Amino acid sequence: QKEVEQNSGPLSVPEGAIASLNCTYSDRVSQSFFWYRQYSGKSPELIMSIYSNGDKEDGRFTAQLNKASQYVSLLIRDSQPSDSATYLCAVNIYNQGGKLIFGQGTELSVKP
Amino acid sequence: KAGVTQTPRYLIKTRGQQVTLSCSPISGHRSVSWYQQTPGQGLQFLFEYFSETQRNKGNFPGRFSGRQFSNSRSEMNVSTLELGDSALYLCASRQGSNEKLFFGSGTQLSVL
After folding, report:
1. Do A98 and B102 touch (CB under 8 A)?
2. pLDDT by residue (tens digit) across A11-29?
3. Which long-range contacts (CB under 8 A, 24 or more apart) does B70-75 make?
């Protein structure tokens, strides 16, 4: 079993819809969770971080964490074509410093 | 504040050669991590340096090495290049114990 799993997609949503991206992780001592956005040919850009159970909202983005289910998700409201990118889920294991375990990424396509 | 700077942006090498990549972290960031990104394996952790000391290492062969200087700049070296080393090499920096990583634009290495 991979340590961090994501649906590879592509996930296609119409403009203005809610995009839902999911991620599961296997290590129970994971403590920090991140969502990165990566446009084609570019480097990953941090868009959300979440550390405790529940929801965290930042503009059109909401990250949700459920440690009991080992599940983290990212919701993008009012999706725009400019949100079309690959979204990477990353997990930091306790006491591992800057080592992040990344999922394979979910490709999101927002159709005008 | 300037972001993470990586040089060169592109490199073409042949099998058996060695290569050195350079990374300058965000000002004030003392931790530098290196990641390899390939279409098949995704983003994989290589190693992390903090205050000139390697703090953590991923599952890569000894051909991959790195170092960090007193000004926090870091270099990564790959010796005896193999075709499979063709990848995007990303450097990331973080501040203190905060696990949020900020990535540079990467060095695209092609091994022929």
Report:
1. no
2. 999 999 999 999 999 877 7
3. B72/B24, B72/B25, B72/B29, B72/B30, B72/B32, B73/B22, B73/B23, B73/B24, B73/B25, B73/B32, B74/B22, B74/B23, B74/B25, B74/B32, B74/B34, B74/B49, B75/B20, B75/B21, B75/B22, B75/B23
